[in-house]
Amino acid sequence: MGGREIVEEKEERMTRRGEKMRFCKYRTRIGYKDATYVIYTGDQGVTGEQIIDGAYRRFHIKLPRPVKFVFLKKRYLVEASLYPHFTLLGQSIGSIFLGWEALVKCIPDIYIDSMGYAFTLPLFKYLGGCHVGCYVHYPTISMDMLSVVRDRRERFNNVSVISKNPVLSKVKLLYYYMFAYLYGLVGSCSDVIMVNSTWTENHILGLWKSRDRTSVVYPPCDVKTFLDIPLDDGKSRAQQTIVSVGQFRPEKDHPLQIRAFRKLLDSKDAKQRSALKLILIGGCRNQDDESRVFCLKDLCEKLGVKENVEFKINIPFEELKQYLAEAVIGLHTMWNEHFGIGVVECMAAGTVILAHNSGGPKLDIVIPYEGGQTGFLADDEDSFAAAMDSILSLSPEKRLEIRQNARLSVSRFSDQEFEDHFLMTVESLITPK
Hints:
Layout: E1 5-10, H1 16-29, E2 36-41, H2 48-59, E3 68-71, H3 87-105, E4 110-113, H4 121-127, E5 131-136, H5 143-150, H6 160-163, H7 166-187, E6 192-195, H8 198-208, E7 214-216, H9 223-226, E8 240-245, H10 254-266, H11 270-274, E9 276-282, H12 287-303, E10 309-313, H13 317-326, E11 329-331, H14 341-349, E12 352-356, H15 359-365, E13 375-378, H16 381-393, H17 396-409, H18 415-430
């Protein structure tokens, strides 16, 4: 394997969890001593050493050998803000130009994309002569996206102006079908395809049609970080808290949480209502996120639940752990979450998880462990409210049993499990037949 260069893309504004996964992969692959490891990055104004130091400070991941960084200047071409219309196509075309800059600066033997830039795969494979692989967190387009437009359902990515207009809906559907076809063509160029969940696998198989090259490799989750939270029976808690953890983005559907919580409160008497608290914990990245938080607070005011709902913005990790340690329920309402690292972390922390009955939580995470229940699933205001009521009505002993099952079940999502499965999957790229 002497002289091989293994290259992967990195982006500055990655989430904390996504960035941790990438550095876990770097640490895993550095086990090949004769390889040179190169990371493409669009970061500007920093050095490679600063990036590595930052990874160690945030994730305690120390790379056993040095890596090289290739700094790219054209990352602005993949920024969504550059394409107010036809965003998927614009970003994908932009990624080709960004990939060309990367290829000109460094031609690797092996190229692995984990940023979702599928349109760079044929570029590196056919022009660069590389073996190519990818790790897909979320399909750029999915069969669900097609069905939402086809059925003219209003969603955060299918606004009412389009969903209520049959002509615009047909135009958007045609655009989506065209893009899905192109996405399938470029994705099928990958020699090795890793996906982060069964939900993602189902959509990638439907679009890329490469079953023999596709494997599920669960992302690394901060399971160990939460295991020091004791699993008490909760009998001494005067207040019953429900905690939601997630960035304040539209797809997380925080309004659904607030409306379901309102229905829960409506079913309680005054004393019971005063003991219930919903705590929304999340990060605000920009002005848009801050505006969403303002709208959520306004919704709480209109629904009369302001006194029972708290917002915790950009709080330190130790404070997050404390809220999870005190919570009865971990709440997650995103429809078709591709995996659900936040769900895993809530389960590891010892909350009784209540997640959306779709995507990764349904297919991979909130599933029985050795025949025992690990959590609850729901899909609308009524079912979420009913599930919260059921969880709060359980005996402390029954809740403790579910929490113990959940904590035991998430060991399969640990850093070590990820590294073992990732290394086994990419072996065919490193030692091709």
